[in-house]
Amino acid sequence: MHKKMLASVFLMILLLQSMNVVESSDFIIQEATIDEIQAAFKQNKLTSENLVQFYIQQIQKLNPIYRAVIEVNPDAVHQAMKADQERKDKVPKSGVGLHGIPVLIKDNIASKDKMNTTAGSYALLKSVVAQDAGVVKKLRDSGAIILGKASLSEWSQYRSSNAPKGWNARAEQAVNPYVATLDPCGSSTGSAISVAANMVSVSLGTETDGSILCPSSANSVVGIKPTVGLTSRAGVIPISHRQDTVGPMCRTVTDATYVLDAIVGYDENDAVATRNASKYIPKSGYLKHLKLGGLKGKRLGIMRAYPLFGFGNDTETLNKFEKHFDTLRQNGAILIENLEINNFNHILIMFNSEYIAVAAEFKVALNDYLMELVTSPVRSLADVIAFNNKYADLEKIKEYPQDLFLAAEKTNGIGKLEKEALMNLTKASKYGFEKVMIDNKLDALVTPYAQSSSVLAIGGYPGISVPAGYDKNGDPYGICFGGLKGSEPTLIEVAYGFEQATNLRKPPPMP
């Protein structure tokens, strides 16, 4: 029999097995949480192999519509079989946490396997990484299964200011599963969409400024943007080491907390940042902060005057969230409203320095990353720009000029201008967000959508986005809780308290 025919028959058998498992079992995989999946494993209602086969089937069915997955790991079924055997043998790490759970990782996070790591770009296709990214090593150590690579805005939305959110040359345009015409937001679009549409259990995204919080809000999932350095960035295609962070994107706060527990901690390949941030990790982990009554006594700040820090004077947005303010109060939170910022206009001007600083940081960091690859068609930002010019007819590359790349290439390290920009960003954080939080003794700042992403980004602060509802058109939107560095335990308590009080998330409509 022809090899291609054999491969097709084998794939069909896998699909039929997957379908039979779902139909014959009384366990429903759709929308299942990590705890429910682990319980099904223990009760012999489900195996990791069945789970992986189900998600492969879902990807084959839905990905042509949503374009949320760039590659499926050809070794995923083998990894699942290994997890099942470990559970049967009662290996110590089996049966808990992420063991046997499939995870999609954003395509800018390196995996040393048969998959590519390309940031959605043809320029890095067939490049070879030296090793797993730090967070991928930790996922593997926990027993998680790397299911595949999630789509993203190409180069994490740092190639072109013209390109729509969720577009990359390899997978083309990602589509919001709730409302196809709605901006899926970027750049961790595939990570959010795949989880929302039940193509995977949980996923990893990355954020430089808004790329976890925004797609989480727009696709009705939970996203945790950790304190910079809490999770390793080693092996992640960089934009700014000062702002880059890796975090979970899941359907529930509990699942996101499981993932956070698994991926935080020291990594010798991102030594300075992870060592400094390790002091923030609670000794007994984050799961203990998933407790009912987590909102009680929490001081939550709300700004109505400044759009950058909160709600501004947008009456429509305020009306959407007033009911949530009531929910927070009813569950014991203390709302500190109408917060003021001294010299706001001066602080606002300082935020413009982010563009200057990131452009220079990107060139330096990307060049370093490319030089460390085992093999690569490109070794510098200049090479990438030349590649894009040469192959402009690939998909829609020529439609989206690489203006951000060109601006970054013109920089020459961290000079006088960049140092001044970095100082401005430090001052903006100190006299803006930090001062508001400290002076008002706040546990978290409450903002709509991903409105506060730049505020949290420039200072390396954490934030959690939780589904907050759907407007009259069915468009999802989230609520964000942001805090000072290392405040993840408190933010988890607040986010979990809000989630449990509202339970607003619902799966997207059938395509």
Q: Which characteristics define this entry?
A:
511 residues; alpha/beta; Amidase signature (AS) enzymes; eleven-stranded mixed sheet; two-stranded antiparallel ribbon; 18 helices; 42% helix; 12% strand; signal; Amidase_dom; AS_sf; Amidase domain-containing protein
Topology, pairings included?
Elements: H1 3-24, H2 34-42, H3 48-66, E1 69-72, H4 76-88, E2 102-106, H5 134-142, E3 145-150, H6 154-157, E4 167-168, E5 172-173, H7 189-196, E6 202-207, H8 213-218, E7 222-225, E8 245-250, H9 253-263, H10 271-277, E9 299-301, H11 315-330, E10 334-336, H12 344-351, H13 353-372, H14 381-390, H15 403-409, H16 416-439, E11 444-448, H17 453-459, E12 463-470, E13 476-482, H18 488-502
Parallel strand pairs: 2-3, 2-6, 9-10, 9-11
Antiparallel strand pairs: 1-3, 4-5, 6-8, 7-8, 7-12, 11-13, 12-13
Helix pairs in contact: 1-3, 3-4, 12-16, 13-15, 13-16, 16-17
Pfam family, one: Amidase
Keywords: Signal
Signal peptide: 1-24
Report on the architecture of this protein.
Helices cover 42% and strands 12% of the residues. With 511 residues, the chain is an alpha/beta fold. It has a domain at 13-22 and 29-289: Amidase signature (AS) domain (Amidase signature (AS) enzymes), CATH 3.90.1300.10. The protein has an eleven-stranded mixed beta sheet with strand order 1-3-2-6-8-7-12-13-11-9-10, sandwiched between helices. The protein has a two-stranded antiparallel ribbon with strand order 4-5. The longest helix has 24 residues, at 416-439. It is globular and about 60 Å long. It starts with a helix and ends in a 9-residue tail after the last helix. Residues 1-24 form the signal peptide. Pfam families: Amidase. Keywords: Signal.
